[in-house]
Design a protein that fits this description.
With 283 residues, the protein is α/β, with parallel strands linked by helices. It has helices spanning 51-54, 58-79, 115-135, 159-168, 188-199, 219-230, 254-260, 268-282, and strands at residues 42-44, 83-88, 139-144, 147-148, 173-176, 182-184, 186-187, 209-211, 216-218, 236-239. Bound molecules: uridine-5'-diphosphate (UDP).
């Protein structure tokens, strides 16, 4: 059994229902250190995704994405196992086009405070495709857009959990910049359903493929929506915009629609209501 304190982001409580399942084994390990285990399919999701967390130890973040992914790909190669790698919409950086299509190469600052994550994931994608071309390894590269939902941590730091917790506590809602930045927010169960479908596609499908919600909303609208849904007394407070914060995020979902017949089913209001209920019980 793992030492709980070692988990860099997640919580052991989130998988407590599985721990008694004899077919489930939890092994805590740092992907930057190679470990040889037997496997027949790898879902590689390792790396904190919240800017607050991945910027806390940027060197660790980039090595998780680069050295960690290299280790995972070597492991997959020796096991002849497919790998599904979760990349990110951050590979598009601050995009000049919207919605973002998979063939858009992006606009990323290579030396900014988000680069450890953005460039780390971009390099990890390169590694996946080079292992595919050079060693014929089966890969699926999935670009995940903003996702939220139950089981998030109180200190996650991303927008949905911040706003909900602030609203439930009647504290000021911290909108960064002028609030005109947009995101498209996908509920977690939709996202997981998409990942499972992609994992079952035939070996010729490599991606990259976008997964996420394509209903764009400004952060100011989101703040107002959450205040209404929680019937909060919170007021909106404007704060400094973090460096290199992308202005817009909206996935083009055509490849997902065509290849896995997938579209998110949970709309923002319903997803927020489930998440509000979860945080209400948690705090
Ligand atoms: N944001 C905000 N207030 C917060 C947290 C985030 O206004 O308390 C904004 C942030 O500046 C960005 C958007 O919400 O424009 C989404 O931020 P998040 O950290 O959730 O994810 P990102 O897409 O930036 O990785």
């Amino acid at each position: 059994m793992a030492n709980m304190e070692l988990l860099c982001n997640g919580k052991i409580e989130n998988i407590k229902d599985n721990l008694n399942n004899p077919k489930f084994r939890f092994l805590e390990h740092d992907v930057t250190i190679f470990k040889n285990i037997k496997c027949n399919y790898i879902f590689h999701l390792a790396c904190p995704a919240s800017p607050v967390h991945y910027q806390k130890d940027p060197v660790k973040t980039i090595s998780t994405n680069v050295a960690g992914t290299l280790n995972i790909l070597e492991l997959a190669k020796s096991n002849k196992s497919p790998v599904l790698f979760t990349s990110t919409s951050e590979v598009y950086g601050d995009p000049e086009m919207s919605p973002q299509k998979e063939d858009y190469w992006g606009r990323v600052n290579p030396i900014g405070i988000r680069s450890c994550y953005d460039e780390g994931k971009r390099c990890a994608e390169t590694l996946c495709f080079d292992f595919h071309r050079q060693y014929n390894l089966e890969i699926k590269v999935v670009r995940i857009f903003n996702t939220y939902g139950t089981k998030m941590s109180i200190n996650d730091g991303r927008v949905v959990s911040n706003f909900i917790i602030q609203a439930l506590r009647n504290l000021p809602i911290t909108v960064y910049g002028n609030g005109k930045h947009t995101r498209s927010l996908c509920y977690v169960s939709d996202l997981i359903g998409g990942l499972i479908r992609i994992s079952k596609l035939n070996k010729n499908f490599t991606g990259p493929i976008n997964l996420g919600q394509n209903q764009e909303i400004t952060m100011l609208e989101l703040a107002r929506k959450i205040i209404n849904l929680t019937k909060s007394k919170s007021k909106i407070e404007f704060h400094k915009l973090p460096e290199n914060d992308p202005k817009q995020r909206n996935p083009d979902l055509q490849i997902a629609i065509n290849s896995i017949n997938w579209k998110p089913e949970i709309n923002l209001d319903d997803g927020l209501k489930k998440t509000i209920k979860y945080f209400k019980e948690l705090i």
